[in-house]
Every structure is written in C-alpha cells, then in structure tokens.
Amino acid sequence: MEAVKVLDAKGMACPMPVVKTKKAIEEIDSGDILEIHATDKGAKSDLSAWAKSGGHELMDVAEEDDVLKFWIKKA
Fold first, then answer.
1. Could you report the per-residue pLDDT of 16-62, keeping only the tens digit for each?
2. In order of start, what are the domains of the chain with their CATH numbers?
3. Alpha-carbon distance 10 to 74, whole Å?
4. Does 48 participate in catalysis according to the annotation?
5. In the prediction, which pLDDT does 1 show?
6. Residue 20: CA count within 13 A, CB half-sphere
7. Catalytic one of 5, 10, 12, 14
8. Sign of CA pseudo-dihedral 50, 36, 44, 31
9. Which one, 40, 52, 53, 69, has the greatest CB density within 10 A?
C-alpha cells in the first residue's frame, strides 16, 4: 500500500496518536493514504473509531515488532 505520508506516533499515549493523525490527515489530499505507526494498544480501537466518524477508510492494520501500523485513506 502506497502512503503519501507516514506519521510516527510511537511512544505516544492516548489521545496523542489520534490528535496527530487528525493533523496529518489535513495535510494530504482526498483519496491519499496516511500510514500511522503507534505503540499504544488503545490506538487500534481509537483510530478505527476516529476514521469511521470522519468518513475516512481504514484500509489495513498490521502489527510488527510491537508497532501497530495503520493505513487510512482520506475521505
């Protein structure tokens, strides 16, 4: 999946991954994909709910070496 921007939210606790994601998604164009890296386990449900509420599409979630990776397509 080709992301136009990668957000490093590793080491941040709730609600910072969502706050940073909101800011980063404003910087990309509609239809573009934002990749987010987070270590907060709560980010899985938080980012999923945030994407849904904003009309964005959570394309995929993966976990690699305790890092959660999210790909969100901007509405």
1. 999 999 999 999 999 999 999 999 999 999 999 999 999 999 999 99
2. 5-73 (3.30.110.40)
3. 21
4. no
5. 82
6. 19
7. 14
8. positive
9. 40
Cα-based distances in Å from 48 to 28, 44, 57: 19, 6, 9
The residue assigned the tokens 């890092």 is 67
- Cα–Cα dist 55/40, whole Å: 23
Take residue 41 and report the two structure tokens written for it: 């386990």
| 60-69 contacts at long range (C-beta below 8 A, 24 or more positions apart) | 60/1, 66/39, 67/10, 67/37, 67/38, 67/39, 68/37, 68/38, 68/39, 68/40, 68/41, 68/43, 68/44, 69/35, 69/36, 69/37
Structure-block tokens of residue 19: 């706050």
Global confidence as pTM: 0.95
Tell me the residue type at 46: D
